[in-house]
């Protein structure tokens, strides 16, 4: 069989992925070619007209086939970029989503406020349901004054979070805690900030979830009982108990859940409650603060 050039193989892969209904087939074909050849983006351009050794061509075809059958790109590559950082992901962790970057941006703003208010204090945060650790690690990397807890109920997820924390050299400021959101083993009034992207999809919405997500991502990270609100409510209750006065709670939630989450935060005694929209214009993150004087 004549050997094909890398450009030709990538064009065939893009056509195959397009026919399989894959999102962004050309980008996918390129990312998989990087994985199969070990070349970076520049290397791929420079090697485009070279013939590909049969072994590499076979490996590339296997990766493309997996993607065409619906396996997420992040699982095939074992990694996903989030907030400009590279994260290892496995089928045991939710794949970091671009809309979650809004939660990180808002948390960083709240951390800046806390640093200004408490210039000499030791500051600590918790990322609840950390999964790959993407939120907590992005915070730790960008705010070196802070220490953090990464909590998850799944030991397999915490292993991935630990790997990511070491990769980003912030593991010494982070502690991994295996815990249920309903019963966190933390002292009261101990945190300056709590952040979470909890499971928030209602079981009744299963029909709206992409097949690829349902087939390959952990359902425990996606679905929450009580119309998708149980974990969000647990977070509001935990915030009242575990935040210090003046501490912030930030939650990601579904685009229809804004009014419910604002109510949960107000019922828990938080103030300055507001919701921000994501780039698609959907209500996506709600935040609130435990009042400085009393707990209202
Ligand atoms: N915190 C992780 C993320 O945002 C995992 C969230 C989850 O498992 N629901 O990707």
Can you walk through the features of this model?
It contains 11 helices and 9 strands. By secondary structure, it is of the alpha/beta class. The strands form 2 sheets. A 7-stranded mixed beta sheet has the order 5-4-3-6-7-9-8, with helices on both faces. It has a two-stranded antiparallel sheet with strand order 1-2. It is elongated and about 75 Å long. The site of glutamine has 13 residues, from helix 7.
For this entry, give a set of tags.
296 residues, alpha/beta, Rossmann fold, 2 domains, two-stranded antiparallel ribbon, 11 helices, binds glutamine
Write the layout of secondary structure elements.
Blueprint (H helix, E strand, L loop, with lengths): L5 H14 L5 H13 L3 H7 L6 H15 L4 H5 L1 E4 L2 E4 L11 H18 L5 E6 L5 H9 L3 E7 L2 H13 L6 E5 L12 E6 L14 H6 L13 H13 E10 L5 H10 L3 E7 L5 E7 L7
Parallel strand pairs: 3-4, 3-6, 4-5, 6-7
Antiparallel strand pairs: 1-2, 7-9, 8-9
Bound molecules: glutamine (GLN).
- CATH topology heading of the largest domain: Rossmann fold
Query: What does the largest sheet look like?
Result: 7 strands, mixed
Name the helix and strand elements from N-terminus to C-terminus, one letter apiece: HHHHHEEHEHEHEEHHEHEE
Bound molecules: glutamine
Q: Based on CA inertia axes, which overall geometry fits?
A: elongated
Mean pLDDT: 95
As laid out across the biggest beta sheet, the strand order is: 5-4-3-6-7-9-8
TL;DR?
The chain has 296 residues and is an alpha/beta fold.
């Amino acid at each position: 069989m004549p050997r094909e050039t890398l450009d030709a193989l990538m064009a065939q892969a893009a056509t195959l992925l397009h026919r399989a209904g894959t999102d962004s087939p050309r980008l996918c074909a390129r990312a998989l070619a990087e994985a199969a050849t070990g070349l970076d983006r520049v290397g791929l351009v420079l090697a485009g007209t070279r013939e590909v050794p049969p072994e590499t061509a076979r490996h590339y075809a296997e990766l493309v086939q997996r993607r065409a059958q619906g396996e997420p790109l992040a699982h095939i590559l074992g990694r996903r970029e989030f907030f400009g950082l590279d994260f290892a992901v496995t089928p045991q962790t939710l794949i970091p989503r671009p809309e979650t970057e809004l939660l990180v941006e808002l948390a960083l703003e709240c951390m800046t406020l806390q640093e200004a208010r408490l210039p000499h204090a030791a500051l600590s945060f918790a990322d609840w349901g950390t999964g790959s650790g993407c939120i907590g690690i992005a915070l730790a990397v960008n705010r070196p004054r802070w220490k953090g807890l990464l909590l998850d109920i799944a030991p397999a997820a915490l292993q991935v979070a630990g790997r990511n924390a070491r990769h980003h050299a912030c593991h010494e400021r982070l502690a991994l805690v295996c815990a249920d959101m309903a019963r966190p083993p933390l002292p009261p009034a101990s945190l300056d900030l709590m952040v979470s992207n909890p499971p928030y999809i209602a079981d009744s919405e299963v029909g709206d979830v992409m097949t690829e997500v349902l087939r390959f991502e952990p359902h425990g990270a996606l679905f929450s009982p009580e119309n998708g609100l149980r974990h969000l409510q647990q977070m509001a209750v935990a915030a009242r108990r575990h935040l210090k006065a003046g501490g912030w709670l930030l939650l990601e939630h579904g685009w229809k859940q804004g009014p419910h989450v604002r109510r949960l935060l107000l019922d828990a005694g938080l103030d300055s409650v507001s919701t921000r929209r994501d780039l698609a214009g959907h209500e996506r993150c709600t935040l609130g603060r435990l009042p400085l004087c009393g707990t209202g």
